[in-house]
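Good morning C.,

I know you're traveling, so I'll keep this short. The sequence:
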Amino acid sequence: MLQGWIKLHRKLSDKSFFKKDSEKVHLWILLLLKANFTEKEECLGGKPFLCKPGQFTTGRRQLAEESGISESKIERILTYFEKIEQQIEQRKMSTNRLITILNWEECQQIEQQIEQQVNNDRTATEQRLNTLKECKECKEIKEIKEIKEIKEIKEIKTPLENKIDDFIIHRKELKKPLDAYKLGLIIKKLNKLASDDDDKINILQQSIDEGWHGVFELKKKTKATAMSMQEFHEYLTKGLEE
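The tokens, ready to paste straight into the viewer:
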């Protein structure tokens, strides 16, 4: 089955036979269509033969069947193309013949170059798409892995460590980010203010709630705030009586 396309040079219309003999035009186009674009092994005289680009094996009867032109006219036209126009060469055997289109590369090679370029461009595009897809997949896998690692780290951290992380975020929100040295000072002071982790957590939370840059001793609740409203009223009344 014939595939692809061929170049048809405008000079064909300048040929003397173009207006006078449409069967010659018909057969010439058929010869171009049948010629191989790449090397191909065919049978010539009953033996394998490697046809080069621009060559093909055929027979007078076969060409007549494919073109609808009589066998006798086929022979005359081929001889005309060979001897007069010098467009082809023929190598006749007992069973078939080899036809070579002269100046094939000059007339038709560009088709191969374009086709090859199209194939190269297609391959390059597919490779780029595959690379982008792989990069996207790698990025997604990396992000999933990082999220999983962060989650796992957070799960194994102590409540105090999580609260320290909250304080670090708090400092960033205050536009006062902590470097390693400053964080070390904060933790050192925190250890002086409290020995119990719960107290340290409360100190850090106090600084976050108050919007402080540093950590300070926990505020002591006044007696009034620790009492109910009724107890506070009784306390005041008793104080006045005394």
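Safe travels,
E.
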